[in-house]
């Protein structure tokens, strides 16, 4: 067997070109080939084939494709045999192929050999052999946006650049021109590649072709991207016009003597923690060097004060032994309180001086300095640390290119071009865990002092927000006052309140000053957005919420958040951003100084309108017994979310739940109780009964503070339901009585009917089934007279349950069948599920377990379709109990495990019952 993926995906058995089937099956094979020798997860295969919208049968379809491919690769394989090549693993599938079977593996072997070859002329021959294996972009003709295929194309681009550089040094430019032309045609906007094509044509005496190549790429950049050629292309064209050779052909000045620089600053003697990030960085370095394509670059980024420099220096010392030719270090002053940003030529002159090159021999031009720098580093194993970088242009000429070297770049912005164009591996730094902060305190202050005052230590960790810079300021104070109790230091921080004054004003540790370096780099719009975000009450913010806060269009908000994400915010997940508490404090201080009280009040009002109206729109799409009152019209400039259906509405509640909970607790007039009420269905469906109780209590308090009787009536009823569902029903009757009185006073007959139905639930729970029947019948009569068919079905279900408990099983069955028909007629999947559920319980009590399990299966399917995990968990709990009673313990445990996994959070009475059962069984 032979396979190709460097171009169209093809396979041969002997001389027979195999038919690999349709696009999806070929895409599965392409991904397995591109990841040859490693396991490809089943989820990854599904995502590659269907991207964001896989069918329910996706996994089965992938298994079918794998089976077909296995028979193609090993046609004589017996049925159900595992085979030697396409192997199943727990996590997915692995395609085992040797270097003689796959062009990608042969290409990588040749590239590695070319890079190790000391003779440039022989190396060019190996490069040429490697590049002839390419017959098009990776997986040509298929969906090629998958990161694995893009990465392999990146290997080709790097190989082309390295081959060109080697050929130019060896005077062998003609040998690589065909491959460069081919690569430039596949990647017409790859400026470094186009620059090397122009340089090779120039070196081969084809000036007219070189000029035409430059004009073509210049026009394409202008037409498609609206930009001019970058420095590398411009440099190649300048050499062409002046008939200069490639920079790599120029001999570097001879150093006065052999230098081994050791510029790495001292390691932090009390460094601790960061093991996860250190392990990731070390693994990336090892993998990069094993691949041997070029130098490895790590891009360390994070918010101000997160400890990037300390981390980079510690990592450098940990790895320094692998780089015997020395270490270079430069603070590029990308975000500095004083002084100017270091220019690339300033950094290069410093590095070249450290490498022993006499300063008097250095040229003036940046590209010439960069050429000498690359020449000096060629063949060496160097560690280069570039601290506090501002952007890619500042570092691109400072990065080593030869295999065996390592660059560590730190920046408080996420330099996307460094990762995309420069091929760096991102190593983002997050806040250390509370345990890591405590460990750092122990290392610096001693275990005895820390363990003697655990409460004070907890307060210090909380007040510093786990920000390493803030923690270091407090530690320095504690070290300087060894006799002062930590409780006194914690009290000083508490006395400073939410401000930054408690962290001192030392020039190097003043948090406000450190934060200001990033703030001053913001555009005016992003700076205003940063200040206003201090008003946001939740842990993270979405683009629509930020747009409403600032009264700007969503696109403008997205751009501003993107700018902030490279300076002060953290992108928690797609479309949502978080701000550290200390940065929020700094932003709030700026807002008080730069934004008028009226502007801040209007911004907060817009934000509340966004959430109040959005929560109402989302709640309207969910099944609900009693709709909440509609909120007032939102202010101008507010972006009201819209939802395609219940699934999107539930997803929005999931994403915004903590923000909405904070607004419900804020007591904002006319807002908090509205928001609390719209959270009811989401909290009930997801089984978050403790949160449901707490949120309704806060909402009720807000409605009472507002004097809003409509809100109070709804919230009394909802709070009664929350208490009832959390098995804390003692208060429920009191709240139902108050709700009934308020609905009567307001003349809301539908509200009165719903309270009657709720009374039926309470009476049934207390086994007062005659009373429950009377409440159900009164509710049924009112719903029917109002033409409310959905609630009519609810009343019939409640009536059926009570009649069954009174021994009227046949009548109860008939009522439930009516409710099932009524629910399906209205398209009420959730209502049908409740009816199946009740019918199953009835069959179980009648001693008909098979019929009960069948009905529960129907109910479970309906609850899944309706998106009600709490109800699904209760059904699985009941099914598990039935299996346990029948003596099938393993089946019972499986149902209970599925029930627990259905609940988004392990809180509430159902979750407690499930954990008890799984623990006791």
UniProtKB/TrEMBL annotation:
Entry keywords, A to Z: DNA-binding, Transcription, Transcription regulation
Residues annotated to bind DNA: 1-97
Keyword Ribosomal protein tagged: no
A Pfam short name: TPR_12
Region spans: Disordered: 900-921
Keyword Transcription regulation attributed: yes
Domain OmpR/PhoB-type: 1-97
Signal peptide location: none
PANTHER family per record: TRANSCRIPTIONAL REGULATOR REDD, TRANSCRIPTIONAL REGULATOR REDD-RELATED
Protein family per UniProt: Belongs to the AfsR/DnrI/RedD regulatory family.
Stated name of the protein: SARP family transcriptional regulator
Species, as recorded: Paractinoplanes deccanensis
Organism placement in taxonomy: Bacteria, Bacillati, Actinomycetota, Actinomycetes, Micromonosporales
């Amino acid at each position: 067997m032979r396979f190709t993926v460097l171009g169209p995906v093809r396979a041969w058995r002997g001389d027979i070109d195999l038919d690999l089937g349709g696009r999806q099956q070929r895409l599965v094979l392409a991904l397995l080939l591109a990841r040859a020798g490693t396991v490809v997860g089943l989820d990854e295969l599904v995502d590659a084939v269907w991207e964001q919208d896989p069918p329910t049968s996706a996994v089965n379809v992938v298994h079918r494709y794998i089976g077909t491919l296995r028979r193609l690769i090993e046609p004589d394989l017996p049925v159900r045999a595992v085979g030697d090549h396409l192997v199943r693993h727990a996590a997915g599938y692995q395609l085992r192929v040797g270097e003689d079977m796959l062009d990608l593996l042969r290409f990588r072997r040749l590239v590695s050999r070319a890079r190790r070859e000391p003779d440039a002329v022989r190396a060019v021959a190996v490069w040429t052999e490697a590049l002839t294996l390419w017959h098009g972009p990776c997986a040509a003709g298929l969906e090629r946006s998958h990161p694995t295929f893009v990465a392999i194309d990146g290997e080709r681009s790097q190989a082309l650049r390295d081959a060109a550089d080697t050929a130019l040094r060896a005077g062998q430019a003609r040998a690589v021109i065909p491959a460069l032309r081919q690569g430039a045609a596949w990647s017409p906007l790859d400026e470094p590649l186009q620059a090397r094509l122009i340089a090779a044509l120039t070196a081969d005496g084809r000036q007219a072709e070189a000029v035409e190549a430059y004009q073509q790429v210049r026009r394409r950049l202008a037409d498609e991207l609206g930009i001019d050629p970058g420095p590398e292309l411009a440099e190649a064209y300048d050499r062409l016009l002046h008939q200069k050779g490639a920079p790599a052909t120029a001999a570097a000045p001879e150093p006065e003597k052999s230098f081994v620089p050791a510029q790495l600053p001292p390691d932090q003697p009390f460094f601790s923690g960061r093991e996860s990030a250190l392990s990731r960085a070390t693994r990336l370095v090892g993998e990069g060097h094993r691949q041997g394509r070029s130098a490895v670059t790590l891009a360390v980024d994070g918010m101000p004060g997160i400890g990037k420099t300390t981390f980079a220096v510690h990592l450098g010392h940990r790895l320094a032994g692998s780089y015997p030719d020395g270490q270079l270090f430069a603070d590029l002053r990308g975000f500095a309180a004083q002084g100017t940003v270091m220019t690339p030529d300033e950094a290069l002159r410093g590095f070249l001086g450290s490498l022993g090159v006499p300063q008097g021999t250095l040229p003036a031009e940046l590209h010439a300095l960069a050429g000498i720098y690359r020449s000096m580093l060629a063949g060496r194993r160097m560690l280069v640390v570039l601290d506090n970088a501002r952007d890619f242009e500042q570092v691109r000429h400072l990065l080593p290119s030869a295999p065996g070297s390592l660059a560590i770049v730190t920046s408080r912005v996420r330099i996307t071009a460094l990762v995309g164009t420069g091929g760096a591996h991102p190593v983002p730094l997050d806040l250390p865990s509370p345990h890591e902060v405590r460990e750092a305190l122990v290392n610096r202050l001693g275990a005895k002092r820390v363990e003697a005052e655990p409460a004070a230590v907890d307060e210090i960790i909380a007040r510093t927000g786990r920000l390493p810079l803030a923690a270091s300021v407090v530690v320095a104070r504690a070290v300087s006052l060894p006799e002062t109790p930590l409780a006194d230091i914690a009290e000083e921080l508490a006395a400073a309140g939410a401000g930054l004054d408690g962290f001192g004003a030392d020039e190097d540790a003043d948090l406000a000053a450190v934060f200001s370096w990033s703030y001053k780099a913001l555009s005016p719009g992003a700076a205003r957005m940063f200040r206003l975000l201090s008003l946001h009450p939740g842990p993270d913010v979405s683009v629509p919420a930020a747009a409403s806060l600032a009264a700007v269009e969503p696109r403008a908000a997205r751009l501003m958040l993107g700018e902030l994400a490279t300076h002060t915010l953290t992108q928690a997940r797609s479309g949502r951003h978080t701000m550290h508490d200390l940065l929020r404090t700094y932003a709030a201080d700026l807002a008080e100084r730069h934004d008028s009280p009226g502007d801040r009040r209007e911004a907060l009002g817009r934000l509340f309108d966004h959430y109040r109206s959005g929560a109402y729109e989302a709640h309207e799409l969910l099944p609900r017994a009693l709709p909440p009152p509609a909120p007032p019209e939102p202010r101008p400039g507010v972006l009201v979310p819209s939802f395609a259906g219940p699934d999107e509405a539930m997803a929005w509640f999931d994403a915004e739940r903590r923000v909405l909970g904070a607004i419900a607790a804020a007591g904002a007039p006319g807002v908090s109780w509205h928001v609390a009420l719209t959270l009811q269905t989401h909290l009930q469906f997801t089984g978050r009964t403790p949160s449901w109780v707490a949120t309704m209590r806060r909402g009720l308090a807000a409605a009472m503070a507002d004097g809003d009787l409509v809100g109070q009536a709804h919230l009394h009823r909802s709070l009664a339901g929350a208490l009832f569902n959390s098995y804390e029903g003692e208060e429920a009757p009191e709240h139902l009585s108050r709700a009934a009185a308020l609905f009567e006073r307001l003349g809301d007959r539908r509200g009165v009917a719903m309270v009657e139905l709720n009374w039926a639930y309470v009476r049934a729970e207390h086994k007062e089934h005659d009373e429950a029947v009377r409440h159900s019948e009164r509710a049924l009569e009112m719903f029917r007279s109002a033409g409310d068919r959905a609630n009519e079905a609810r009343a019939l279900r409640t009536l059926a349950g009570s009649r069954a408990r009174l021994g009227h099983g046949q009548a109860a069955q008939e009522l439930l069948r009516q409710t099932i028909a009524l629910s399906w007629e209205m398209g009420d999947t959730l209502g049908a599920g409740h009816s199946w559920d009740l019918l199953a319980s009835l069959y179980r009590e009648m001693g008909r377990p098979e019929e009960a399990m069948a009905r529960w299966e129907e109910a479970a399917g309906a609850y899944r379709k309706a998106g009600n995990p709490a109800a699904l968990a209760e059904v699985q709990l009941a099914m598990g109990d039935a299996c346990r009673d029948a003596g099938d313990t393993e089946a019972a445990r499986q149902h209970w495990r599925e029930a627990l996994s259905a609940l988004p959070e392990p809180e509430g009475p159902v979750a407690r019952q499930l954990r008890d059962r799984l623990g006791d069984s």
